[in-house]
TrEMBL record:
It catalyses: (5R)-5-hydroxy-L-lysine + GTP = (5R)-5-phosphooxy-L-lysine + GDP + H(+). PANTHER family: AMINOGLYCOSIDE PHOSPHOTRANSFERASE DOMAIN-CONTAINING PROTEIN-RELATED, HYDROXYLYSINE KINASE. Signal peptide: none annotated. Pfam families: APH. This is Hydroxylysine kinase. It comes from the Bacteria.
Length: 353
């Protein structure tokens, strides 16, 4: 794997190793001083940040203390995205930024004995994590509509952090090819390489001509909450930490990759999901034509990067590989479908010439 990809992956791996502990007493004092709030504060799980749930008589909030290795510029991209969404589409179910007493959306603070870190306070979104919810076609369609609205809300945002390289950016999927050398199963390694070959032949030459904008870039089932009383209603979209300025169609490809049922009708599922998105945010013909190959590229990235990280952190392998087996199955299901056939089905579904 080439140098830039290695550097981006290692940097992301540092962030995934877990953030240094933050004393609850320090966090509570910070909330009182900068937000004028007090209540019950308890730790929440988080892959790379230190998060806390603040419960007050009036409302609940989430305090996020970013990983010390995360650039303030990157944190600000997420902050500005949420502020932009709140203005563009206030009904979208995303967290809202709670300003400090000084009216600032974030602040820099240094925990005892630690490094300076970005601190933000968000509204708290209750709901059922999608992996624990009952799945349905109505839910899948609502996911597609919500993503389309999110992309519409983000389309006018511009931020310098959007140009930074991220390991999960599908437009650079070819850079994970070297990671496949460590896949022990020859058939699986060949399967992944075929998908990357199609990406190189069918997608890369078109990338420069595709519509680009800031995208969520990680619209997977673990970043979505649903209404406890109605699992078809989306109650929350979480984790804007992988945002990037990239082709718009990449966002749909990420989300669609997690909709593939290896035991079901792959093209019927993808076509319905794409058509539902298209009804809210119309796709262009060149975007529809690369969608199927982008879905497979995302699946390759999941198995390649998760496998690489699991080898580096065997103690955390079960968590890192939680999507690995089903991603291989999804990739195999897609591999069995000729690209031209998939393009034809998707074009008909979206009614593009």
């Amino acid at each position: 794997m080439n140098g830039p990809a290695s550097a981006a992956l290692v940097a992301a791996d540092v962030l995934s190793e877990g953030s240094p502990e933050v004393p609850v007493t320090w966090a509570m004092a910070l909330l009182t001083q900068h937000y004028g709030l007090a209540g019950r504060l308890s730790p929440l799980s988080g892959e790379r940040d230190r998060n806390f749930l603040l419960e007050t008589p009036a409302a609940s909030y989430m305090l996020k203390v970013s990983h010390p290795a995360e650039l303030p510029l990157v944190a600000d991209f997420q902050t500005q995205a949420l502020l932009h969404i709140a203005a563009a589409d206030p009904a979208l179910p995303v967290q809202r930024i709670v300003p400090t007493l000084a009216g600032q959306p974030s602040l820099i603070a240094q925990p005892p004995g630690g490094e300076a870190r970005v601190v933000r306070l968000f509204t708290y979104l209750p709901g059922v994590p999608l992996p624990k919810a009952q799945r349905s076609q109505a839910q899948a369609r609502e996911l597609a509509r919500t993503l389309a609205r999110l992309d519409l809300a983000l389309r006018d945002l511009r931020h310098p952090a959007g140009e930074l390289e991220l390991p999960w950016d599908i437009q650079r999927a070819d850079r994970v090819r070297g990671l496949l050398d460590s896949v022990p199963d020859v058939a699986r390694r060949a399967l992944a390489n075929r998908a990357l070959d199609r990406f190189a032949a069918n997608v890369q030459p078109r990338l420069a001509h595709l519509r680009a904008q800031p995208i969520h870039n990680d619209f997977n089932i673990y970043n979505v909450l649903v209404d406890p009383q109605d699992h078809a209603r989306i109650a929350g979209v979480l984790d804007f930490g992988d945002m990037v300025h990239a082709p718009l169609i990449d966002d749909l490809a990420v989300a669609a990759a997690y909709q593939v049922d290896p035991a079901g009708d792959t093209m019927a599922t993808l076509a319905d999901f794409a058509a539902t998105y298209h009804a809210v945010l119309p796709l262009q013909a060149d975007e529809v034509d690369v969608l199927f190959d982008l879905v497979q590229a995302r699946l390759v990235m999941v198995v390649a990067i998760s496998g690489w990280r699991a080898a580096r952190h065997p103690e955390n392998a079960p968590y890192l590989l939680r999507n690995n087996a089903v991603s291989w199955d999804r990739l195999a299901a897609c591999d069995a479908i000729p690209t031209e056939q998939a393009r034809s089905v998707l074009r008909r579904a979206c009614a593009v010439a």
